Amino acid sequence: MRHLKQSLVHFLFGVAVLLLGAAMAQAEAIKEKVSFRAETLIAAGAMVNGDLTIPDGANGKVPAVIVIHSAGGFEDPTRAPYVAALNQAVIATLELNLFAGGGRPKTSSLNLPQVYGGLIHLANDARIDPARIGITGYSTGGLLAMFTASSQLTHDFTGGKYRFAAHLPIYPGCWAHLDSIEGRNPVYKQNTYQELTGTPVHILAGAKDNYDDPDTCQKFIQALPEAARQHVGLTIYPDAGHGWDTKTDHSYYDKAANKGRGAYVNHYRNSDAAAKSLAFTVEFFKTSFGMK
Prior knowledge:
Number of strands: 10
Largest sheet: 8 strands, mixed
Distance between the termini: 53 Å
Strand content: 15-25%
Mean pLDDT: 89
Strand order of the largest sheet: 1-2-4-3-5-6-7-8
Shape: globular
Radius of gyration: 22 Å
Number of helices: 10
C-alpha cells in the first residue's frame, strides 16, 4: 500500500509538471517572421516583411499596433521598449521592415503599399481584432503613421474597407504634412488632409528638435480643416530633441531634414521624455482600443 501511495504521488507530480509546462508554453508570446504580398489597390503585390508578435495572455482576438522604424532602418533599436511595453499590455505588434529591399526610398509614399498591406494582413488574421489595429512610428515611421490618417490615402489603398483605429506619430517631421496642406509637397496632393478617417491621432514632438522647426506640428494642426482638426492631439516635450528615445547619442546628415533642404540632425537621449513617451504610447492605444 505504501509503495502504491508513493507511485500515485509520483504520478500526480508528473501530471502537474506536464500541466504547468503546457500552461507556460501556452502563455509564451508567439513571435514569427512574416513575409507576404500586399493586397492593396495601389501597388498590389508589393512585398511586406516584418516581425509579428502575439503577446502573452492573449484571450480571443487581440488588438494590434503596426510599428515602423526610423530612417535608421529595421536595425534601429529605438522601437524595442515600445514593442515590449505594448506586448506586456496584451497588444500584438507588427514591426515592419520597410527597407528590406534596399535603403530608404526617395519618397515615403513608396512605402505606403507595405503599411496598408500590413493593415489588411492583420485585419485578416484570425488572432487579431480587425477593428482595433493602430499604427505608430519614429521620424520616417512617424511620417507614415500620420499620412495613413488621411481619408483620401486610406480609400486609395484599401477602397475604404480598412482603416487604422489610432495613429501615434512620434517626432514625424511635420513640415511634409504642412507642405501637403499648403500645396508645396510634390508627392502628396493638397487634398491629402482635406478629410481624416476620424480615428484618434496624437503627435509627440520635441521643442528642441533640429530636424524641423519646433512649431511646425502646431502650424500643421492649425492648418487642418476644422472637422479634421478635432481628431488630432499634440504633446510637445519641452527639453527633447529629435530621437529623444535613442539608445546612443549621435548626429548625422539627413537630406530630408530642414524642410527637405538637408541638415545635420542631433539625437540626444532625454530619459524623462523617453519614459513619458513610452507610457503615453501604451495608454494612448489602450484608451483608443477601449481596454481597461
